[in-house]
Amino acid sequence: MHDPISDFLTRLRNASRARLAECSAPHSKLKESIASILKGDGYIADYTQGTDSRGHKTLVVKMKYVDGQPVLTDLQRVSKPGRRLYYRYTEIPRVLNGLGISILSTSQGLMKDQDCRRNKAGGELVCKVW
C-alpha cells in the first residue's frame, strides 16, 4: 500500500455509505489523530484501539448516524504522496462555506482549519471532510 491515509479515508467513506456500525483499519498515530479530530467535531461516534487475529494493532471507528443518515457525508484526500499541497494560514480553503472541515498537518501536529487560522499555523492540507 502506497498511501495508508487514503486507505483509511476510503475505509471510512465506504463504511459510511454502506451504513456499517463500525470500521477497522491498521493503527498509526496519524490515523488516530485524524479520528480524534473527527470525533471532536462530531463526524464519528467514537474510536478505540484493538488487535486483529494476527496480533497487529488496529483502529476501530464507530460510525455516527442521525435518523439513519450518515453524519460523515464524504472525505476527500487533498495532499497525496505524489503531489503535496501546503498552505499558509491565510490561504487555507473553506469547505462548503464553513460547513465542512479541512485537516492540516502542521509543525504543532494535526489541526482543523479553524484552529490553524486561530494559531496562525499553516501546513500540509491532508484532507477535507463534510
Verbal overview:
With 130 residues, the protein is an alpha+beta fold. It folds into two domains: 4-70, Ribosomal Protein S8, Chain: A, domain 1, CATH 3.30.1370; 78-129, Dna Ligase, domain 1. The chain contains three helices and ten strands. The strands form three sheets. Strands 6, 7, 8, 9 and 10 form a five-stranded antiparallel beta sheet that branches. The chain has a three-stranded antiparallel beta sheet with strand order 1-3-2, covered by helices on one side. Strands 4-5 form a two-stranded antiparallel sheet. A hairpin with a 2-residue loop joins strand 4 and strand 5 (69-70). The longest helix has 14 residues, at 4-17. The radius of gyration is 15 Å and the shape is globular. The protein starts with a helix and ends with a strand.
